[in-house]
Design a protein that fits this description.
Layout: H1 2-21, H2 29-44, E1 50-55, E2 71-72, E3 91-100, H3 102-106, E4 113-120, E5 131-137, H4 151-162, E6 170-174, H5 180-189, E7 192-196, H6 200-206, E8 216-222, H7 223-236, E9 239-245, H8 248-251, H9 260-269, E10 278-280, H10 281-284, E11 290-296, E12 307-309, E13 312-321, E14 326-335
Parallel strand pairs: 1-3, 6-7, 6-8
Antiparallel strand pairs: 1-2, 3-4, 4-11, 5-8, 5-9, 9-10, 11-13, 12-13, 13-14
Amino acid sequence: MENTLGLEIIEVVEQAAIASARLMGKGDKNEADRVAVEAMRERMNKIYMRGRIVIGEGERDEAPMLYIGEEVGICTQADAKTFCNPDELVEIDIAVDPCEGTNLCAYGQPGAMAVLAISEKGGLFAAPDFYMRKLAAPPAAKGHVDITKSATENLKILSECLDRSITELVVVVMERDRHNDLIKEIREAGARVQLISDGDVGAAINCGFAGTNIHALMGIGAAPEGVISAAAMRCLGGHFQGQLIYDPAVVKTGLIGENKEANVARLQEMGITDPDKVYNADELASGKDVLFAGTGITSGNLMKGVSFFKGGARSQTLVISSQSKTARFVDTIHMFDQPQVIQLH
């Protein structure tokens, strides 16, 4: 899968990032997201594959492009039988977030990315558009920290696994009212808190790399993005757990579904019989081969954002593969017209 689709998948996230980056700092998060969706969809439909969106921009009636269940790729077109060989056909499931951190992009803040994860058909958890309690940590803490433990307990475990004092640990938490108690507990335990307004996929992935000065992600964020984070962390060997949150009273910002009971019923319709189950990265991204790709829209810890020069642009992409067991940083110069200068630095 990686050999067949690797370069083209990179181009998918690159094109989405470039489209969003043109609107960076203009204060219109919806438009930044829309253009990224269009760019991602257009490029995916040029790939020789049969792809299915399992995590996208919402339900079909609410999302005209890249909706959940949409088929993408050359081999999904009406006349596909004339040019697609069934024996060579690559069928994959795709989870996308064309502009992860829409507010970050709209207001020119660090860490916005265009991201996706792919696996063979059935290899990614089809998460409902609910919320998810998440815990991400470095590989050294995998299987030791646990989302069912308190933040204080997990910080003690993390301290032992990383051979650091708790005061040296940095925990990323989304700045939401629902996290007030969590933030207080982390600080009282002695660790430092880095609050983010958006974009917890990037925060989770940062836990997988030493030197980012981010040692854990804790708290509640969107469930679809949790699957994308899990795919990346599975490839990196990091720790990731997620637990669906279906009670609007817990989230405090509203959920799809009018109430807790209706949300439980929706989960059961989707085949999720245990709504309180704790999922690990291997369950959320269970495929034999999993690949994550993300291109920086605005600069973050791992990647620089898109930079434009006369006649072109430069992007940085992170590609993580369970198949080749690699994390590649791809630096690309895009030549749009006839660039007079190709900017290296």
